[in-house]
Amino acid sequence: MMAIIGPSFINSQSLIQSQLQPSTIKNVNDVSVVQGLIGRILGSEFIPVFQLTLANNSNNEEYFSVSSTTANTIQLTANTPVNLASALNYYLKYYAMCTFSWTGDQCSLKTSSIPSVPTAVTINVLSQWRYYMNVCTFGYSTVWWDWPRWEREIDWMALNGYNLPLAFVGQEYVWYEIFKQMGLSEAQLMDWFTGPAFLPWNRMGNVNQWAGNLTMGWMSDQMSLQIQILGRMRQYGMKAVLPGFAGHVPQALSEVYPKANIVQLGGWGTFNGTYYLDPSDPLFSKIAQTFIFTQDQLYGTDHYYNFDPFNELEPPSNDTTYLHNCSKLMFSNLLAADPNAIWVLQGWFLVDDPEFWQPAQTEAFLSGVPIGKLLVLDLWADVIPAWNITKYFYGHNWIWCMLHNFGGRTGMYGKIPTISTAPIIARGLSPGMVGTGLTPEAIEQNVIVYDLMNEMAWRATPPNLQQWVENYVSRRYGKPNNDLSQVWYDMVLTVFNCTEFLYGTVDSLIGLRPHLNWTSTLYYNPDVVNRAWSTMVAITDPDILATSTFQFDIAEVTTQALSNIFLQDELIMNSAFLDGDLTVFLKQSEALLNLIADVDTIVSTQQMLLIGNWTARARALTPAGESTDLYEFNARNQVTLWGPYYSDVHDYAYKLWGGLTEDYYLMRWTLFTKYLAQSLTTHQPFDYNKFVQDDEYLESYWGTQTNKYPTEPTGNAIDISRILAKQHLGALAM
Question: Potential cystine with 717: which of 179, 195, 432, 605 (Cβ 3.0-4.6 Å)?
Answer without folding.
Answer: 605
